[in-house]
Amino acid sequence: MITTFKEENSDYVMFFEGRLDTAAAPQVEREVQVLTECDGHDIVLDCSALEYISSSGLRIFLAILKNAKPKGSHVFIRGLNDDLKQVFAMTGFTNLFEFK
Asked: What is the pTM (predicted TM-score) of this model?
């Protein structure tokens, strides 16, 4: 699992590449900590290269959202493939996140 952080315009963008499964979750949790300093910045979770997400990965996404909302930041998800869209729909995450 590879994550890459970039600042695009005024947004914080985290790119996910590979499989966000239970084995990768602890490392990814550490790497997304940079997003906790999102005051005044919206967050984009780019899943264009994400192949798979487990419940551990969904929990990380939810934690990012719960941290960002009180700070007035929005969390957007972009680049979901059809399989990931189905996972997000089945878990109700389509109702929680905004999509680009």
From this structure: 0.95
